# Entry
Amino acid sequence: MLYYRMVALLLLFLGNISMLTAQSSIRGRVMDAAMEAPVPFANVRMHGTQRGTACDSSGYFHLSLPPGSYRLVISALGYEPSVEEVRVSEKTVAVLNVSLTPAVIAFPDEIVVYGRNRGDAESGWLNATEDVIRNVAGISMIRRANFALEPTIRGMDAGRIGVVIDGMKIFGACVDRMDPVTAYVEVENLEKLEVSKNSLDLTKAANIGGTLNMVTHKADFTRPFLAQSEIGYETVSGLRRYRGIVNYADSLIALRATVSLKKSGDFRAGGGQVITGSGFAKNNYKMDMSLNLGAGQRMEFSFIGDNASNIGYPVLLMDATTTKSQIYRLEHHWMNPFRGVKSFRSMVYFNRIDHWMDDYDRDVTVRPVMRNMYMPMFGKTRTAGVNEEISLVTGGHRLNLILDFYRLTAFADMKMVSVLPGVSDAYLLNLGDVLLYNTAAVVDYSRLLTDRLRLRTNLRIDYSDRDLRNEFGRRQLEAFWETGDMRQTLTSFSFSSAIEYRIGDYGAVQLVVARSERIPSHIENYGFFLYNVTDGYFYTGNPLLKPETSYQAELSMDYSRPEHDFRINVYYNNIRNYISGVIQSEEFKTFANITSAFITGVEVKGSMDVARGLRMHVSAAYTYGQNRELNEPLPLIPPLEGGLGIQWSSDRFRFAIESRFASAQNRIASRTTLEDRTAGFILLNLRGRFRAWDFLDIKLGVENLLDHYYNEHLSVNNLPGRGRNAYFGLNVHSVE
Amino acid sequence: MHFMRFVAVAFVTVLLMAGCSEKSTQPTDNGNPEGSLLKVGEGEDQGYKVELYSEKTFAVGYHRIYVKLTKTSTGALVDRAAVSVVPMMDMGAMKHSAPHEDHEGVSAINGLFHCAVNFIMAGMWELRVNFRDEENGTEGEVVMNINVAAGNMLKSVAGTDGKNYFITLVKPEKPVVGMNDFEITVHYRETMMSFPAVEDLAVKMEPTMPSMGHGSPNNVDPTHQQNGHYLGKVNFTMTGDWRVDLDLARGDSLLHTSFDITIP
# Structure
């Protein structure tokens, strides 16, 4: 979020500046990192002052300064600001060439969590990845337990959006979606979020509702030795956690290892009500190795292991007993391999997810659904993929070509064991050995049309071949669909285009239009007997589904200065062949393409300096979704929601008061599913972080200060949100 | 060259991942007329040998009975004959028969004459096989005794019209998860020797799992085909204990019955 960026920049400014007097200067050129084209009229400022200059139309600048060490902030509209250290000697001209990364058209909602340029100001500020994701206006979280929240972008989730880790496809093993991909990246491993809330960016996944790429921290060559150890405690659930980070680097190899251990008891809702059976335990490990191969080449290997156990889902029928995930990635980067080729990237990855759940800890003799039956379930997915990207750049043009291939196998089954004597066990397959191949080719082209006009166009074609291989599973589904063949081949074609025009020195207008398609998910095609707790129906997959097609347009306006910024987005997304549950019989629904639905909305976001070190930020998002066929609201659409906060930062201290609000949601789906109305709420949070010594940070905060009882509209079965939560953290780290 | 090496590695990886799929083969049948049928008895009369085959051992319920007729002198198969199998049970004080179906027409089907008997109770039954060779008009009869075990494929239910009906589950014989053919026969007792097929009923069928209180979609109610046979489709969504409820009506409701079926 821009707000955090600004705060971090301010931090870097503080504690400057020695100024001497003599004849010396800095000159240089500011270039567009993506385009190899100059960035005209960029600002070059000395950190913490208003002193500085601007580049000319060819990107050149010259700044007369007394000798000394300076920290310069180079910023330009539409680019990530860059902070450069430069030393100026007496009577010399220091040369500083800077590459700025285009920000706006690439990822307007990129959130840097542990960014390189921010120092360590951000690290450990928030407690969980979910808190970071939630900060993006337009992203809301589906909450099924006090664990593993699932992101939705503008009311769209699951197969409609692409959620990836470092570009890797990972598919949840649980057919009840208890294991969203976002659970595998702990906050200390999240370097940044790349969020595309529309289908402009098609490079990560076919989508009709945007993508969320969780860029993880890799081994850092700039940190010869870094170690961090943090313990934390949260009162609302008795959560105890430990995280540790070690980084080692020499010129050839960099290694990073992190561990995160958490154990949580039952949480309390506002007002003190204990939500029994909501605890969990989770361990996460990440290891990264980077090899500097020389000649612009780097090899990266990373592994994420995530194990959780005894996860309580108090509002669902079952608890997750064990989850095991292993995510492997091998990536090769090659900068400037040939003339005209800026980079060549190859990634091979594999991940395996296993998920067990059961209701052995529940009293099944009293519940209304599936009474007297235990229902242990198991699910697994295995995904392997190859991703090749070549980036060709000549002055003013950038062409990225991507080949994106993956292979998925998915299996899920369910046993039903009666507590009553004389009843045979029952058994079924929720996913009878799905085998899915997906191959995509992507063209991502950008060009500078003029100094002020920038164009980006994406084209993506996906070809998917999928089948159900288990005979038992096939027979289950063939009873529903009179197709002799469960195998399906599907093609989707997506196209997007954005044009950005810069107004004055600080403003920009961006228009995105896209026609995108997404192929049904393997669960929508082949899922069987999936119990939906919201409407009480068993869902059956439909192998004959057509892809959903989206026609969308978004207009956004940006005004961005270091001391204040503002952004507004208005969008409209029309979806044809919208996939929805359709009643088949008294207890069964199938997935079917309905004619049309639309989602529209508006988001605003801004921040401003109100005094030295004090910055206020505000954001709000409103989403409106309508099922045209049934003329009723789409389900799981967040109400008007947003936040207002003020943050004070100094060298050693950081303090924030935030409020988060959501209005009531009275637009609910009653035919496609059975939602209920949700009341509005306002929450108040206090957060603080204090650097007690150079090696020790203390983190303190209170979330939901007023202990308000509430539930979010996207909370499944009205699971209440957490009550007042005081948290505490102690971070011991190496001193640089 | 590094570049080519990486391209090669990526290519090989794709191939490896694409190459792992399994193939299966189908067993083929041999051409033996009685095939894998079970021989349940034989006898001789008028120079003819009569052999009886069944698909399974006898239990209460519906059984197809295959009759193989050969001339003892030459061993030649007779393939044009009228053949019937009449079941009879001697209970001492009284005798009674059971619903049965004669071979239709006079042409053998792949060398066999297809009859059927619906055993309405367990015990020792007498099967009278009558034949008439269409070539020379020779008639004969062979009587065999067979033992019928108890079973749960047949329901004897009193209808609202006061008559006694026999509803027999014919299919699925080996129920599986997924869609199954569902077939019943309906007969009523006219006399102790006569059990006519009932051909004019409207049948409603509903499968449920009593232990879970839910059913399944996409079932097809049985409709009459011929000779009291009603054919529909039943969808068992999972293994376990199922109950198929049947409502048979002739205008007004006539009778209700159910079959318990366990899917292994």
Observations:
- The CA atoms of residues 212 and 241 of chain B lie 10 Å apart.
- The first strand of chain B starts at residue 38 and ends at 45.
